[in-house]
Structure formats: structure tokens, C-alpha cells
């Protein structure tokens, strides 16, 4: 699961008002090469919740991102390369995602998060 995916997921358990960001539990992280596309990164940047993204990157072992970022940084090749690497090339292969409000753990297996809810959570 890419950090791009993580940044878009939230817990939809019945009664949960703050299901974002999901806390990451890491068992295995892998890197997969993805072709660099600066236009894609520039278009995705405004859609990313930056603090959650940086915290997630740190959790999986990548601490190269700045704590704060703004659109002026999109002109920096160094910033774009770090953003690209964290957003698209780092994958949570095994682990879990935990709801910040309920503590419910959603497993991640072979890079796929299982966000299915139990009957009593719908």
C-alpha cells in the first residue's frame, strides 16, 4: 500500500467522527520503482494532507520530508524527488492500519488494506 493510498483512507465505522489519519503498524516495507512524473506530483500535492503524510512516512522509516510544505516547493527538484519517493515508491507490504478513535485494526496483507467492516460496525 502506497502512502498515497494511506492519505486517502479513513475509518468508516459507525459512530466514528474522526477516522483520519489511520495509524500505521509496520511489519514489512518494500520499495518499488515508479517512473518520475513531476506533473502528477504537482497535481496531487494539493490533495495530500501534509502532516498525516509526513507522520506516515516517518512511521515506515522515511524522515526526509519537511514538516511543512507549500506549493512554492514544487519548483524544487530535490523536494519533488523526496515527495515522489515517499508518495509512490514506498509500500507498506505487511502490517496494519489502526482507527485513531476506536483502535480497530485493519490488516494490510501483500500490500492490500482490508477495510471491510464487521456487521456491528456498519
Total of DSSP H or I helical runs spanning 4+ residues: 4
Radius of gyration, CA atoms, in whole angstroms: 15 Å
Low-confidence stretches: none
Oligomer type: single chain
Taking the alpha carbons of the first and last residues, their distance comes to 24 Å
* Secondary structure category: alpha+beta
Mean pLDDT: 97
State the shape: globular
Order of helices and strands: HEHHHEEE
Strand content: 15-25%
Q: How would you sum up the major sheet?
A: 4 strands, antiparallel
Question: Helicity level, as a percent range?
Answer: 25-40%
Q: How are the strands ordered across the major sheet?
A: 1-2-3-4
Description of the molecule:
By secondary structure, the chain is α+β, with helices and mostly antiparallel strands. The chain has helices at about 5-10, 40-45, 50-60, 75-90; strands at about 25-30, 90-100, 105-110, 110-115. Helices cover about 30% and strands about 20% of the residues. It is globular and about 50 Å long.
Features:
single chain, 122 residues, alpha+beta, 4 strands
Put the structure in a nutshell.
This protein is α+β, with helices and mostly antiparallel strands and 122 residues long.
Element layout with pairings:
Layout: H1 3-8, E1 23-31, H2 38-44, H3 50-59, H4 77-89, E2 90-98, E3 105-109, E4 112-113
Antiparallel strand pairs: 1-2, 2-3, 3-4
Amino acid at each position: 500500500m502506497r502512502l498515497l493510498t494511506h492519505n486517502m483512507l479513513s475509518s468508516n465505522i459507525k459512530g466514528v467522527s474522526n477516522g483520519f489519519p489511520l495509524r500505521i503498524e509496520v511489519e514489512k516495507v518494500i520499495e518499488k520503482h515508479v517512473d518520475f512524473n513531476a506533473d502528477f506530483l504537482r497535481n496531487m500535492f494539493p490533495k495530500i494532507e501534509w502532516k498525516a503524510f509526513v507522520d506516515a512516512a516517518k512511521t515506515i522509516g522515511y524522515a526526509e520530508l519537511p514538516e511543512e510544505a507549500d506549493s512554492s516547493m514544487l519548483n524544487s527538484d530535490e523536494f519533488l524527488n523526496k515527495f515522489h519517493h515517499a508518495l509512490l515508491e514506498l509500500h507498506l507490504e505487511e502490517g496494519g492500519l489502526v482507527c485513531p478513535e476506536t483502535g480497530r485494526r485493519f490488516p494490510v496483507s501483500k500490500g492490500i488494506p482490508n477495510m471491510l467492516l464487521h456487521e456491528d460496525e456498519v
